[in-house]
Automatic annotation (TrEMBL):
The keyword Signal applies. This is Ricin B lectin domain-containing protein. InterPro entries: Ricin_B-like_lectins (IPR035992), Ricin_B_lectin (IPR000772). It comes from the Eukaryota. CDD domains: beta-trefoil_Ricin-like (cd00161). The lineage of its organism: Eukaryota, Fungi, Dikarya, Basidiomycota, Agaricomycotina.
Amino acid sequence: MKSAISVLALVSFVAAMPAQRAKTPVYLIHPHGDTTKCVGVTGGAFVQGAVVDIYDCNGSTTQKWYGSSPRMANPADGSEWALDIANPTPTNGLAAVLNHSGDGGEDSSPTQSWNGFQGPNVPEIRLNLSTDKTFCLDLTNGSEANRNPLQIWECFAGNTNQKWTYEVLA
């Protein structure tokens, strides 16, 4: 009888735990088709304000993103992290960072909402801010060097620094 009560208590505890949000589909995001480089989080740490950068693809959770349209967020451990910018007022050269997106999967900041526009070469995309569609996620100085921080920059056609490709993992 005692073990049956223990099992019921455990089931009740597990049922009361909040469910983690869905983590699929999971994507790797690459700068303009270079599948050896991935968008990730500098230093591999999920912390408020961590810089989003380019690094050799290595399979780490900090390089895996999921799209819960219109937002791109890092699936890591089910926590509510999101791709964001370092200041609520978009300007050229502003750093792309990781910030907490709030409870229940709701954005705590409108700058965490991104639109992905398919380019002519699928799966090419451009990611621009939903709040100000004139700014796109940009590969700083076009450099694919490891730890090159990403930024936002005014969107313009033909800018390869703003062209991204993705790979579906799951």
